[in-house]
Amino acid sequence: MTDVRLPVGDVQFSVRAAVLCVRDGHLLTNTGVDERGDPFWFPLGGALGTGQDAVTAAAREWAEETGWPAGPLTLAGIGESVFIKDGRPHHELTFYSRMDAPAGFPTGAFGVLDDDRFTCEWLPLTALGTRPRLEAQVRAMLDAPPGTLAHVVQREDGWAAPPGTPDVRFPLGGLKFSVRVAIVCVRGDRVLTNSADGLPFHFLPGGALGAGEDTATAAAREWSEETGVPPGPLRLVGVVENFFGPPDKRQHELGFYYRMDAPDTLPDTPFAVKDNGDVTCQWVPVAEWAQTPVYPLAAASLLDVPAGECKHIVSRG
Predict the structure, then answer these.
(1) Where are the alpha helices (H) located in 75-232, listed in sequence order?
(2) Which Pfam families would you find in this protein's record (predicted)?
(3) Which residues pair with 154 in a beta bridge?
(4) CB 3.0–4.6 Å: which of 141, 157, 158, 260 could bond 96 by disulfide?
(5) What is the DSSP string of 254-301?
(6) Nearest to 82 by CA among 257, 218, 220, 234
(7) Average pLDDT by consecutive 10-residue portion of the chain (317 residues)?
(8) Beta strands 11-23; 26-33: pairing state
């Protein structure tokens, strides 16, 4: 297992798994001192490992930092952050999981077991937003109703990824790691899919996230590149952690799925993908997905996600 934390072009890219543990109006945080000597606070957690889903990674990080086994964890949301540190752009995806404090867990401060630079301490929830580096995302995750996922995008100083930024798609830790965006485009009882000669399955329009690019922007870009039609309103309906492939070609894919009603100008008959003539866009009735498999198969459960909600799926093929 290798941490998903590495440079992608000029951007430092990482995926984190964080634990939001709340007790009696307090959030358990790590605290330390930065290079200028200023104190800062942040949620417990660390880098996602290749081949590991986000909730499992959060449980591992909790045990490594506190020495206690994790209690039941529930994914609360995903944060996307693009910021500048030491003159370099950083792109960080964070999966936040909620957990109640275990019975008997310390009420006072204690040292982080796997990093003596930091201390664990309970921070009053009323102090959120007043502490340096404690992500504004945390409040959204804590306020998310049970069973829903919060999704927060933060971009510092309006920095935008320049054209030609490398894709978040690379070999890492003995497998291929990627972050993909896909569009669930619906027209009546049909969904737009891609197909190619020789492939026994269809797949949804989309492609790789660019380093420094948020997933909604990437979804709109991929749609325009493939169809030549401006996208309509997009809403996130699913985040799929997908593990698949034979043992010698394992893949770990984080998929962000955006639903969109089909624009009126989109053809009703099959057409070639604009940026790849070997791929065809065509409509498949939802009722025929069992006979015409659309990968990943978990996408079938994203067709009826109510407005304002987002599903989290872990799929191990």
Answers:
(1) 137-143, 215-227
(2) NUDIX
(3) 81
(4) 141
(5) EEEEEEEEPPTTS-SS-EEETTEEEEEEEEEEGGGTTTS-EESGGGGG
(6) 218
(7) 94 96 93 78 93 97 96 94 87 95 92 88 86 75 87 81 86 96 94 90 94 95 94 95 92 96 92 88 88 85 89 90
(8) antiparallel
